[in-house]
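Hi there,

I know you've been waiting on this one. I reran it after we fixed the sequence typo, so this is the corrected version. Both the input and the resulting structure follow.
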Amino acid sequence: MPNGLRMTTVKMETAKKVYFASDQHLGAPEYASSLQREKLFVQWLDEVSKDAEEIYLLGDLFDFWFEYKKAVPRGFVRVLGKLAQLTDAGIPIHFFTGNHDMWVFDYLPKETGVKVHRNPIERKLNGKTFLIGHGDGLGPGDRGYKIIKKVFRYKVCQRLFGFLHPSVGIGLADFFSRRSRASTGNNDKTFNGPENEWLLQYCKRKLQKKHYDYFVFGHRHLPLELEVGENSVYFNTGDWITDFTFLEFDVRTARLKKYDKAAGAS
């Protein structure tokens, strides 16, 4: 496969569906509202599990995550328990690391049973070809972040951060996470035309080399359904901070939906 991607084929049962969601940012902006959104997301997971063939969580489930040797961030027991319950029941859950929770190591897959992905993957779902990922660092521009991402992925940097006491390390991470959200302002929620959608440009470049029926990414915090080329569509799943949107794929069609029980949750 090109660029080291390996295709995995899934044949779906007629009544089954595949679900995609991203950017819950649990832990932000503070405990009370995060807990409310966590409960809502767990409720959604419980509902979609009734007909789910697979579930894809496309990154930034947590606003910050770092696994120390003997400690993990406090909280999130509801969503972690639900993930474990669903994988125990035989539902595959794919967890993509995002730019806020890239420091997932062995604790999360071991305890919850999720399959961790650090890069985009190809999947063939009921004959349709998907390219799926979080979306950070893809497409043109943003060289500064791409450099930082590579640095953060170095094991030596991870080990150095691990030497910090969890109270210090998590405190620093929370500070920079808040700065990150503040620096983006409302740009995350603004559509500036297809020529300025860098993930769309990435999809178009990929389509020149190989056909994909669907490109599915998160990170953008804006629900999008855009035509890439002939019989090819790019979806962005939005977020679970203000949008509460997700992508649903049945045996034939992908649809972007809003969770109808999310009114008043933001």
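Quick highlight: DSSP finds seven helices and twelve strands in the chain.

Best,
R. S.
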